[in-house]
Amino acid sequence: MAFWVIGVIVVLVLALIFLYNGLVRKRNRTQEAWSQIDVELKRRHDLIPNLVQTVQGYAAHERGTFEAVTQARATAVSAGATGDAAKIAGAENLLTQSLRSLFAVAENYPQLRAVESFTQLQEQLTATEDKIEFARRFYNTSARDYNISLQTFPANMIAGPFGFKVVSFFEAGEGDREVPQVSFAAGPPTQPAPPI
């Protein structure tokens, strides 16, 4: 009889170890996925001042757009310091919207689009945006798997006592869900190109 009791205890301890290690693996995978997003967001934040400066040289009268992008970048950097996925997602979505405004301004200046430094910055930012999207999908998949593990039986019995917490998804903002409006208004304002 004692042999069976010891066997059951050993099986329960092994199951507990297996569940705990599985939760640790999924939490670490989620944290790794978040760090990939963080790296790309920092790269994005580093590219933005150069992009704003380049566009500013051609469209100096668009001050409100530049201030909006600069403020959105500062908010995104501050939100990144919190580590809160929900705050970061909101700030980054606001930054994405302000960048769209900046690119809309750039569309009005054909001579700007011909400048090599602008096109390189735009390509780098576009590549970074693609990497952020990929990293966000990977993070959300990892977060989903981790959260499911925390909320299903029997792992949910050990998750709380061992300090495992549900993580937030990195969600698209309302602006990302809206269909962009296309306008074929009168041509761009004419303005002489600044000296290079």
Residue share in helices?
over 70%
Q: In total, how many beta strands?
A: 0
Number of helices: 7
Note the overall shape.
rod-shaped
Q: Supply Rg.
A: 24 Å
Q: Which fold does the CATH topology refer to?
A: de novo design (two linked rop proteins)
Topology overview:
Blueprint: H1 2-58, H2 63-82, H3 85-107, H4 110-113, H5 116-151, H6 155-159, H7 174-177
Helix pairs in contact: 1-2, 1-3, 1-5, 2-3
Q: What would you note in describing this structure?
A:
Helix 1 runs parallel beside helix 3 and helix 1 runs antiparallel to helix 5. The chain is rod-shaped and about 85 Å long. Residues 175-196 have low confidence and may be disordered. The longest helix has 57 residues, at 2-58. The chain has one domain: de novo design (two linked rop proteins) (Up-down Bundle), CATH 1.20.1440.20. Helices cover 76% and strands 0% of the residues. The protein has 196 residues and is mainly α. It contains seven helices and no strands.
Entry summary:
By secondary structure, the protein is mostly helical. It has helices at 2-58, 63-82, 85-107, 110-113, 116-151, 155-159, 174-177.
